Amino acid sequence: MALLLTSPPPGLSEYSPLSARAGALSSIRRASAAAIGRALSDEKELLELEFPPLLERKTQFDDYSNVEILDANRDFAVLLANEPELRCGGEPGALWLCFADDGEAELAREAWPGRRYAEVTVTSIAAAVGAVGGDALRPFGAWVRRGEAEAAAAKAKLAPAPALQLVVQPGDGGPMEDWLNVELLYREGTPIVCLNGALDKVTSGYYSNFLNPKLAQCASRFYSRFEQAYFCKPIGSGRGWLFRVYPEPWQLYRQTREELVIVDTYEERPTLAACSERLRLP
């Protein structure tokens, strides 16, 4: 019996008009929530979601700003946090939505008011670390806003203990300390889902292991343990996409003008170099 594989989101091909991508992020959100639910049932505690957050508005070749990425990830995270698979049967507030900094957390509260969204504890990564008894690392110059940071941590301590922590875009576009603080946040028995944290860059040594030895050590002992619950990433200069939904095999798609064509599946995650090489073959 052939294994049924989840299909990539609609309109993924760069040859498709952007109008064909309507509903792509909703598709990703539903598939991600279901995958997270399955992974949590399998007692996976470190999960990654990786996909283009501007998928419905821009192609991989368009210009975009970090603010656009932050806003898109923020909105996706708030909606994902309201999927039933992420509530884990916990009391209101037991799902912690952790943004890169206190400013992003405040923007999320302002952009998504209402009782439905208030049932999630919205905070920052550093404040969450302080709330669970850790000592968050701060980038140089952060002492200027130390009072605000301490107030945010004190507020997080008043929330119910986390049953699940959804961490939004740590590090990528921000300070290296964000990635290091996610490890400080982790407590065995409390799962973490990392949303678009560019973990590929962390684990591949993209930021130079020589210049950032702390990050390299963190990647080896911590980020290498993450399971990709949902992964959708372009390969090569528009040649194809690598796709996976937990617990299914990895799928490699070639992009043509007419459609995406699956060329291979893998039980273990292939390297991006291996994918690029495979896409050069017939």
From TrEMBL:
InterPro entries named among the record's database cross-references: DUF1995, LPA3
Source taxon at top rank: Eukaryota
UniProt xrefs under Pfam families: DUF1995
Domain DUF1995: 31-275
Name this polypeptide is given: DUF1995 domain-containing protein
Organism of origin: Prymnesium parvum (Toxic golden alga)
